[in-house]
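Support case: zinc ion complex. Customer-provided input:
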Amino acid sequence: MSYQVLARKWRPGDFSQVAGQEHVLRTLINALDNGRLHHAYLFTGTRGTGKTTLARILAKCFNCEQGVSSNPCNACGACREIGEGGFLDLYEIDAASRTKVEDTRELLENVQYAPAQARFKVYLIDEVHMLSTHSFNALLKTLEEPPDHVKFLFATTDPQKLPVTILSRCLQFHLKNLSPNTIVKYLGPVLEQEKIECEQDALWQIATAAGGSMRDALTLLDQAISYCQGPIGAGSVVEMLGIPPRQQVFELLKAMASGDLRAVLAITGELAGQIPDYAQTLDSLLSTLHRLAIAQAFPEAIDNSQGDRREVIELAAGFSAEDLQLFYQIGNKGREELYLPGDMRSAFEMLLLRMLVFAPDPVVPVAQGDSGSSGGEEEGGSRPEEELDAVEPEPEVREAAAEIEDAGIENPRTEAEIPEAAPINMGNGGVAAEEPPDTAAGLVAEFESLPNVQKLVRNFSGKVIRESVTPSQRRGEQ
Ligand SMILES: [Zn+2]
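Agent response - structure generated as follows:
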């Protein structure tokens, strides 16, 4: 027996086998079970979401020899012939190849005659938006007053191109793109029955790459089976698709969150070894950034449709909202750079570096003067002061604080608590408090007589912290 591609072999034969589309199924099943049959149905949605599949199942429901129901037997002659594509009273037409009015007239010529063997004559017109205006007019006449034994089933990816006169005579069903989760759930039993081993990660990659289309997912699975010649591994699927696994995108973002430039470059190096499609990689990165931004604003809006809810919410906590916005914009704007002359890897790395360098709170330290550029301990002059307050102070600052404590100050006050009138200007803004005051005796006296003296210390950020020192404590210190 010749090989049948998975997408055909695993085409659902009844409503119970259809993946997703619950909103459409419920309406159809209720209508069929209550005998409320319409004469024209329109299925819309992107490729591979099940438009013609649903139409064929509906044709079975109408014509099953066991009677009209939402649950065709799949055993009688009509059900089997519809499934195999040889049923006399099912006219399947691809409108894309028969757009002319003559074609439509020819098709509708016999519409008045009773079906050859079944209950209903079913016209299944795929890509119906491709019909010409004259064809639509010809069709409209029949749609206005259809014979009782005729059912029209239309499918289209582009319902906007249909005349409203047609639209208003059809029951419309919009099929949604399938989530990766739905696709993974559907592919699980397929793999089991086909006796094919497949790593869970590989399955998710295929489901994500399918872009909401079950047909694409099954085709990719076919391709992976041929590519791997055995168990399907995540690594092989990465090579086949050129799309990095989600885990790698998460690793990349984790490294970016911590500003670990070395790790970022190591991961792009790993990616380069997998011959990736950098545009797809950037897309994965951007769509993950989008999910992180949503996770920050509304964690409850992140569902587990991609099996990574927990990871997304955890990762979102590592970024500021500004970072995510900026990274997204830089990535989006920089997409075209990938296609400019030069190699894509360099362009991709430059994009990542740009994101880090221009972040509001630069995660990659920018070299300043003689302070060098590695690590996060050097002065970071552009950082907001509030944040630095929370950072562990440098040893010299700690020493200074300890000195103050040793001197008996119970509650050294911070800058914010000091009244404006109290400070005196020590002039150099540096570590000045320990230096003897001016030799002029008058000045010393004045200094000694002040109720509180501001002790100036400098923390690692260059921010001046002033502490109060009483005259007696000050004398004790010297
Ligand atoms: Zn049947």
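The chain has four domains: 6-174, 180-241, 261-357, 389-477.

Case will auto-close in a few days if no follow-up is received.
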